[in-house]
Design brief:
3 copies of one chain form a homotrimer.
Chain A lengths: L1 H18 L7 H22 L5 H4 L2 H16 L7 H25 L4 H22 L13 H17 L4 H22 L13
Chain lengths: 202, 202, 202
């Protein structure tokens, strides 16, 4: 899974850099946004679990994310990135990160509630920090995304299969595929959660 | 105090969800804002103190905050929440969280300065993160709230009584009541700290 | 270096408070922004490295930052602060914090990539959090600052000299001076990194 995870980091970094595009930022800012988007979720997870960030011991992730940000900065001048391809790749990153997050929490022996929450946090926190840096209401909160919800459902599948003693690769793959399917289906058919409605004064 | 703390978590979660109401967010977003508001302060405190977040070992807090957020999402369609009642309950949560924060820092043997600071941080950080997620200038910084200031005074009372060897429950209760009184009085009579005034160029 | 570091903390706190000036915030808000700006970078660094924040064991930094914020709040009514003097002092703080960040990561035995990254994070994170609290796009991302870039180059110099077995004070001083020179030169002559340009649809 290590190679796939590196690929997920690279893809998220590219997606992060592209989100920053309309803002007037310089080369360094693009790289920062790319790195934060790619590594932010795992960092928040590790910090909450009381351990050092995963990339402190495996700096290759920093190198990959930086290179992907730099690549995007240069390539975006010559190539028009297709946003829909990016969204699919981003969904792939979301799925990978969420299940990796579950696995890390599981390996530390935390309860099911925390495992699922850490999965969702690992999947979405990078994007939240990215949107905060770019001064926007985080995408994950806007209607019609089924972004965090997809991660949530996939983490539930992972934890359920794990509780049923399914082999690790089966649980992992089922979780990843569930997230991908839910997220892509939500994008394709505009599936959305109900909106928050507050009763007005009469 | 455990039951009271759970109540404080639930109340802060409801208040958080209501703050998110005017934003166009979906069900998941409401729950996230609720959970972040209720657990954010304690999480920031634990992370700064170098320990894992308190709810990793006590996931019941996550369950309570999630349930409170979901409850608010459903109930807000049928019932009009009274904002003034919420502000009172929120003041109660602020008071509880701040003193619990002091106690945690105290139990780790840190200095008085850090104990007071951790109390204030535990009390207010959840609300700050909530306002950042909703893309607003944090309420705690706006004029006329005496929000963090109330927490600060109450933490001073707690630490002073502690230094005088007052029994733990006395110090705790005095701190909580001080915060409640200062905050509610400030709301009732519009007491405010002086505003920041900068000398203009002549 | 301890005295210099305290001076750097005080200077960054004053700069932080002045940035908050145009916002309608009260005395407490000014102190919070000052403290966050001065201690935020080191705190983020320590949390990522899995240790408690440095000021938990050395609360004198909290006292200094608070005093500097309070001083600015009072003094700003009577004295007009020269923004250009502040920018120079702020560059000094950036340089100090970045190299101290490198040294901390170095002492924990992390790899070169992480040492440089921690240096940059320690230097700039305080300002990023400050700008988030004030609801602005972080200064560090805007064009024409060479802010984080200066920290990056100085950290590279520090790590290179270290790898060449230069004595610690030489490596440290060279790093600090490099950051100062790059940052001040960039401000003086408007040196900037290339902007992010995205190919438009034809």
């Amino acid at each position: 899974m290590n190679f796939l995870l590196l690929f997920g980091v690279a893809v998220c970094a590219v997606a992060g850099a592209l989100v920053a595009a309309p803002k007037k930022i310089d080369m360094f800012g693009v790289i920062v946004v790319a790195v934060v988007t790619a590594l932010g979720g795992g960092t928040v997870r590790d910090v909450i679990l009381g351990t050092k960030a995963f990339w402190v011991t495996e700096p290759v992730y920093v190198v990959i994310a930086t290179a992907a940000g730099l690549f995007t900065f240069v390539a975006a001048r010559f190539v028009r990135f297709s946003w829909s391809v990016m969204l699919v790749l981003d969904a792939f990153g979301l799925a990978m990160f969420a299940i990796v997050g579950c696995e890390k929490a599981l390996s530390l022996g935390t309860s099911s509630v925390v495992i699922v929450l850490m999965g969702v946090v690992t999947g979405v926190a990078g994007g939240i920090v990215r949107d905060l840096l770019c001064d926007e209401i985080p995408l994950v909160f806007r209607r019609g995304s089924l972004y965090a919800t997809a991660a949530f459902i996939g983490c539930l599948v992972f934890i359920a299969l794990n509780a049923l003693n399914a082999p690790e690769p089966t649980a992992r793959l089922s979780g990843v595929i569930t997230i991908l399917v839910v997220r892509l289906a939500a994008m394709r058919w505009g599936i959305a959660l109900p909106e928050f409605v507050v009763k007005e004064e009469n």
